[in-house]
Design a protein that fits this description.
Oligomer: single chain
Largest sheet: 10 strands, antiparallel
Organism: Thelephora ganbajun
CATH topology of the largest domain: OB fold (Dihydrolipoamide Acetyltransferase, E2P)
CATH class of the largest domain: Mainly Beta
Number of helices: 17
Protein name: Nucleic acid-binding protein
CATH architecture of the largest domain: Beta Barrel
Number of strands: 15
Distance between the termini: 42 Å
Shape: elongated
Structural class: alpha+beta
Length: 393
């Protein structure tokens, strides 16, 4: 980060940027863009009423303004927006959903929050009463739903992220791959590869690589399960039943944005800083304008959702990024797929065998052999704290 750029910021904000983000967080590739945003803040270009809609549009597909991690540019923009957004009424922040989500995420980053509370009351926490936003504002999203009717809107209407993933996979499978074509592919896989190279058929849109690596019957080892930690969480700005989380899976690219339909089942206080098991190779899906890049593995009571939902708990010594695998020589040392092919219904085929044993241990029971394969890391077995015979998804 250039000291010349931050030197132009007003003193409280300059101090906040310096205290919240280290210089090392900025790569050489992104440094010019980070400095450009800081200079925009310093010159007063950020925060003006006539520029907020443009900024909202820019932030719609992004978690951070420049990179996949927090940079000084995000802190500077947060500080510049604070005087304006702190005075907004519900109708105003509802009309800027991406900007509201972004602002709330940055203000709740631990480093930003801690620095803001020490340095200046000018950066006090801003609360957003989204539940009471004017009803007529919500109707503005209706045209978008019609435009994304085929798959995305079917997903958006589902209140749970796990249901949304299954819904999308089933919809894509039914529409993109007719049953007859599936039989032909099962009988003639080499021919399918030749067809892809010579010209794709109508329903074949996936990369050639995915078709080759997930050939054969679905296996639990194809699913990429990892230990993650929730480092940030807030309610979705446009869906009362959804959380938007930043989950650290130990990746160089930083935390993943994950949307979970758990608001009605787990209080936000019990979600903060939680270690969990994430399904990391599902196809990313957009949830009411926020793209989700993983799924939180949860246990649902054998009595259904009414009986409760809880996070699957990793073993005590588990670390961020640890591999979670299924016990057994056929599964333990197998590398999972880079991304599950929705048309193959791999997760949907395996998921019915996910359960919790009488010991609360999470496991997959082979539907054919009835063999039990516990779900674990190298340090121990994952559990559901209170449920026995629960369904995992």
């Amino acid at each position: 980060m250039s000291s010349d750029a931050t030197a132009k910021l007003p003193s409280p904000l300059k101090d906040l940027v310096a205290a919240s983000v280290a210089d090392s967080s900025v790569s050489s590739e992104t440094k010019p863009e980070v400095n450009e945003w800081i200079e925009k803040v310093a010159s007063g270009q950020v925060g003006k009423a006539d520029s907020l809609k443009d900024l909202d549009t820019q932030l719609t597909p992004r978690t951070y303004i420049v990179d996949n991690v927090l940079t000084p540019a995000d802190v500077a923009i947060y500080g510049a927006l604070h005087p304006t957004i702190s005075q907004w009424q519900p109708a105003q922040y509802y009309s800027h959903p991406a900007l509201t989500r972004y602002f709330d995420h940055i203000q709740n980053r631990p480093a930003v929050r801690a620095s803001a509370e020490k340095l200046s009351p000018a950066f006090s926490i801003v609360s957003f009463d989204l539940d009471n936003a004017p009803a007529q504002e919500r109707k503005a999203d209706a045209p978008k739903k019609k435009e994304k009717k085929p798959v995305a809107e079917g997903v958006k209407e589902v209140s749970e992220v796990k249901d949304a993933v299954r819904e999308e996979a089933a919809t894509v499978s039914e529409k993109a791959t007719p049953k007859k074509e599936k039989k032909e592919k099962a009988d003639k896989k080499p021919a399918t590869r030749a067809n892809e190279e010579g010209g794709k058929k109508k329903g074949e849109s996936l990369p050639k690589k995915a078709a080759a690596e997930d050939a054969g019957e679905p296996q639990p080892s194809m699913i990429d399960l990892r230990i993650g930690k929730i480092v940030e969480i807030s309610k979705h700005p446009d869906a009362d039943s959804l959380y938007v989380e930043q989950i650290d899976f130990g990746e160089e690219t930083g935390p993943r944005t994950v949307v979970s339909g758990l608001v009605n089942y787990i209080p936000i206080e019990k979600m903060r800083d939680r270690y969990l098991v994430g399904v990391c190779n599902l196809k990313p899906v957009s949830m009411r304008g926020v793209k989700s890049f993983a799924m939180v593995l949860c246990a649902t009571s054998k009595d259904g959702k009414e009986g409760g939902i809880e996070l699957v708990k990793p073993p005590e010594n588990a670390k961020i990024g640890d591999k979670v695998y299924f016990e057994g020589p056929d599964y333990e040392n197998v590398t999972p797929l880079s991304q599950l092919n929705p048309r193959k219904k791999i997760f949907e085929t395996i998921q019915p065998g996910f359960t919790t044993l009488d010991t609360h241990e999470a496991a997959w029971v082979n539907p054919v052999t009835k063999s039990v394969h516990r779900i674990r890391t190298k340090d121990g077995v994952c559990i559901a704290p209170t449920f026995v015979g629960a369904s995992l998804s």
